[in-house]
Amino acid sequence: MCAEYATFGLAPAMRAGGVRNDGGYQVHRDFVDFIVDGRPLLFRLSDLDAVSPLASDVPPAIFTAQVRSLLLESPAPLPGGRYVVYGCPECEDLACGAVTAVIRGDGGDFVWRDFAWQTDEHADLELNGYHGIGPFRFRGAEYRAALSALLDGSAPDPRRRVLLIGARVAVLAKLAAALRTIGVGADIAQDADGVPADELRGYGAVVLGHAAGERERAAVRRAFECAGVPVVHVDGLAPIVPLLVAQTEHALDRSPAGQRRLTGLTATDGSADVEVTSACRVTLTAYRLDRLSRTHTHEIFDGVLEAGRHRLALDPKAARGRSFVVARTAGSVLVAAVWR
How far is CA 84 from CA 89, 120, 203, in A? Predict the structure, then answer.
């Protein structure tokens, strides 16, 4: 049994959605992550695409039941006192695989131990155990306070809707359809004038199309300021739907900046610099507009990067004209224009 204490906390997190170049998509999920000793627990589990049971899009009754379960107010859902810590972001089927752990009370404290990857009711610690992770002993008061706050209505509000404003209605319609496909609500408007403050409060971001003028941009900002609604403003870089989806996903990221995996992206016509805080899979995609405003897509990189800053070469064909790069991990996305 562990003797030293670990700190326990919670923080908003995101599984970034996106539109794939093959026509597929990845669903957007907002959830509350576990912060152990100041660092997301998910980051300790290699490159795992998963969400905690505390997802914002589950019904309130199920969310409450998950919180009370972690407080040990109900029996463990799996044999051996095991609880699901992270599961499939697309469904709730254990067969897809989940990270589980034994959670028990001990003299007023809470202990998480025996982490394992599990695909059926019984975990094989020898074969699928996360050796070297845990056990973690949390002070009871700190643990209860963090989880109980979620029951008091203190759970982060993801505000997973965006307002789209711009002159190119066809592009906005395609963008709205793409966002709705990945689970992000989107509304299209010519401006924000006259929209009631209660409606504006429902938006987490406002996306201004590339063709929107400075006067329109200033008017939108003024409308949200007058309503007292803090919102992220996204200036669309180009009429490229996957690029605008990535910009919107970045704007909706509510996770603390110091607890993100993907922290830096810059690009020149010869290379892109990517910075990550822990080992993870990174994909890098370049988008380019030619002289006829046609979009060209180039897959630049798809692999695991260790913590640190990495320089990745850009194909000269991908960096001609107006071009942009998008870097993605399972939990975050960054966008950068290619500078010359």
Answer: 13, 12, 31
